[in-house]
Amino acid sequence: MGIRMRSILVMGILGFLAIGVLGFSSYRLSMKSALEEAKIKSDIVMNYAMATREYTRVAQSPLVRQLVEPDRFYPEIMSGFATSRGIYEEFEKTFPGYIFKGATLDPLHPSNKADAQEVQIIQKFIDNPDLKADEGRLVKNGQEVFYTATPFTVMNKNCLICHGDPADAPKDQIEIYGDTNGYWWEMDEVVAAFIVYVPVADAIASAKTMSLTLVLYGAGGIVVMLVIIGWFLNRDVVTPIVRLAERAEDFSLGENLDDPIDKNATGEVGVLAQSIERLRISLNKLMQRNR
Q: Does the keyword section mention Metal-binding (predicted)?
């Protein structure tokens, strides 16, 4: 293999390795950026949901309880779970794919029932009492999402009015939800997790596309660069060296000793040409003495 091909091969391998590293780094950075953006969005939604729930618990529900009879129960204005669920059913109409759920192990309302993945998240909070939040990626309803979760621990005795002994629950609640599910909660027990799901499939696809585009453009640039380098090598290095090698072969046979070497080449090739020219002159003088 000639010097030209070896040089192009080495530079090509190094160039494509560099493009591969650049593409992988670009993908990782794009993915990190996409997930950071998803986390920011999920935190905003979660904070809004928690603010809504806290307002319902602190201001709205106590006032309603003062205004209605003890056995009356209006979940839309008295239940933090129902209020949050109703608000985000409206929110999802504008932002499809965004989900807020009060995932509960044993809920009053069936839609709050935790699925298998959510049960694992709640169990993580149960097993780790000091854990205040959890986040990660998973596939939900066929699409990849980023989730943020916070535990719901029974910290207020008012919760036990509706979720303790069903005999103590408002009669309206029993008529709406029955007396089987959503009861017998205990103080300091983790019974649910508030979870926000933010779709990231499009962001991940965009990161992959960006990285692939970068690799393709980089590969095209490498090919063009190799062609240009090959042309310069052929013109300024390979062809002059081949010509000098041919002249040196002639001199070794005692041929063309009267034809001077072209010394227009520069750099190392020029130095080599000058050395072979001096060799030609020396050989020519030696041959003339021996005639």
A: no
